[in-house]
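User:
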Amino acid sequence: MSSTGSLERLLKLLFRLPGIGEKSARRLAFFILQQPPSFAQELAEAILSCRMNLHPCPECGNLTEREVCDICADPLRNRVSLCVVETAEDLLVLEEHGIHQGIYHVLGGRVSPLDGEDIDPSSLDRLRRRVEELGVREIILALDPQVEGELTAQSVLSALSGLKVKISRLSYGLPLGGSISFADRATLHAAMESRTTIKDEP
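Assistant: Predicted structure:
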């Protein structure tokens, strides 16, 4: 590739972003270079600020700059309905669309043997503790309709074994093999409204 060292470094870094190919990385790089220097400075500062200031909420795992996230701190949230998601990105998508009025629990991972991925046991322990302490009556598993989502759901069910709580899962209105992060509001709303019970309260 014929480019300067600085440009080559930028292209390589952009190429490492998920969903970004060589052409997209080049397009992004030249877009940044065509902006005023203040734009690059602001972009760099915003990225660094997020990296330095954001941390997982100690209660739910959502990203926050405060001691606990705004959702956990909100006294008006429905605390008897808890939605389990894999990532903070999934939580953000559900919140942006106003799909869930309760609280959340971010697993921070998924079960994927082929990729060597698993859920941190401490996240599952924290989920069980929250369900017991908050008196949660329904847990909604908002997991992607893929094999990994099925395996993740089974891990959650195992961690919550013996608890008297209803557990439901988003309907397969979500396309098989799809991702919550890319679903639109109508699809997510339909999936939430037609969720299926996979474990009823005894």
